[in-house]
Amino acid sequence: MIEGSQQYWRWREYHLVFPEKRPKQSSIITAGVDIGSVSSKAVIMVNGEIYSISIMRTGSSSPDSAKKVMEWALKDTELKLSDIHYIVGTGYGRVNVPMAHNTLTEIACHAKGANYIWGPTVRTILDVGGQDIKAIKCDEKGKVLSFLMNDKCAAGTGRGMEVLADLLKIPIEEMGAVSLNVDEEPEPVSCTCVAFARTEAMWLLRRGWTKEKVLAAYMRAMAIRMCNLLQRVGCESELAVTGGQSKNVGIISRVESLLGMKTLPMPEWEKDGRDPMAAGAIGAALFAKALHEKAKK
Amino acid sequence: MRRRTCIITYYGYMDGSGEYYIVIDSSICDGCGLCVGQCPKKIIETAKAMIDIEEKIVATVKEEHRKNIKYECLPCKPDKETPPCVSVCKNNAIRIIWKAKA
Ligand code: SF4
Ligand code: SF4
Fold it and tell me: Residue A7 and residue A46: Cα distance in Å, rounded?
């Protein structure tokens, strides 16, 4: 990116510390690091509660991204990396989180994280990440019962949204709301492949479609694919949405109307760190606690 | 009544032409590896998986084949016949979903 030009794709990277959760002498300190294809997340927990959280863009190397996001999570805490009793790494594909004591699948971590964020009533989780969509069913303890992943085509994922944000010059965080600004829903676009997103969107614009209409057509196509996945695993209430697109109202509201089912509301994550985008890292930090306790026995 | 826990993994995808999944239930798979030997395309392997916080050896579809199931499994005619991976499993831990649109 050229300096000075606005980076429309850029979502907010952030770091939050909750000093009231500060560790004491006997506290169990654990961490979860989730290296996704687009964003990296780190969560530090004290006795199973979020003390610090950081989210940033994933760089070209996963070990470096893991190091950076963990360093950021440690900032403004009284902790050093060596104070953490157990670290679990997770993420897209075969990630490499060098400081992790163990690595778990992102599916298990997402389910555990969603269970922490919304509580035991969560039965179905739709995770929309940077390059894949996952539909997960879990029990009241956040244990995975079944899951389905679609990473064949990066349909309706973070990466596709970034491409469109850049082309349409609309900040990524506003795209969902903008897409709802249409009089009636257009036909969904036929292909939601990232590779063609740009070309197809440009073609529609040339035909006189407004930006709003183009976005609506995209998000509708994405929502349809997501609903197909959910129906395959059997969508049961309550339904939670995690991952980078969980804050995209354009997608969420369409999924809700297609399914005829409400999704769980966005928690007040700025107050306690329960950010659905970080569900994987939250779950990883919880598993870290369980694994640490198991190792001590 | 307690529901049996099952950990079902759908390997495969859905695209414009239909749905193609190899479905493996890790809670009943005992990792015996019979399916691995029966698969003509050698796309199944047994590997360590973390099931909750316990490690277990189970059948999985090799990562490099997951995006190609539509072509890899086609010779087994999963829409008409019972593929060898499915018929060999005494635990009924494997099934195939094959729905090509006409
Ligand atoms: S034959 Fe059945 S039990 Fe044996 S490894 Fe394959 S799926 Fe598992
Ligand atoms: S359907 Fe045939 S090719 Fe596909 S996994 Fe089973 S045995 Fe292998």
Answer: 36
Please give the Cα distance from A225 to A160 (Å, whole number). 14
Please tell me the distance from the alpha carbon of residue B98 to that of residue B76, in angstroms, as a whole number. Answer: 11
What predicted TM-score, i.e. pTM, was given to this entire model?
Answer: 0.85
The residue contributing the CA closest to ligand 2 atom 4 is: B73
Range of the domain at B51: 8-100
Shortest Cα distance, chain B CAs vs residue A153, angstroms: 8
Residue of B6, B14, B72, B99 for testing the chain A interface, max A β-carbons within 10 Å: B14
Which of A105, A145, A153 shows the shortest C-beta gap to B50? A105
Q: State how many domains chain B has.
A: 1
Query: Among A71, A79, A67, which residue's Cα sits nearest to residue A30?
Result: A79
pLDDT digit string (tens) for chain A, length 297 residues:
333 345 666 667 899 999 999 998 889 999 999 998 888 999 999 999 999 999 998 888 888 999 999 999 999 998 999 999 999 999 876 567 889 999 888 889 999 999 999 999 999 999 987 777 889 999 999 988 888 877 565 555 677 788 888 888 888 888 888 888 888 888 887 665 666 778 888 888 999 999 999 889 888 888 888 898 898 888 999 999 998 888 889 989 999 999 999 999 999 998 999 999 999 999 999 999 999 999 887
| CATH assignment at residue B60 | 3.30.70.20
**Is B2 within the bounds of a domain?**
no
**ipTM of this predicted complex?**
0.71
Sign of CA dihedral B62, B64, B67, B71: negative
Ligand 1 pocket by Cβ (under 6 Å): B 29-35, 46, 59, 88-89, 91, 93-94
Domains located in chain A, CATH noted: 3-114+270-296 (3.30.420.40), 123-263 (3.30.420.40)
Return the residue of B nearest to A288 by Cα: B53
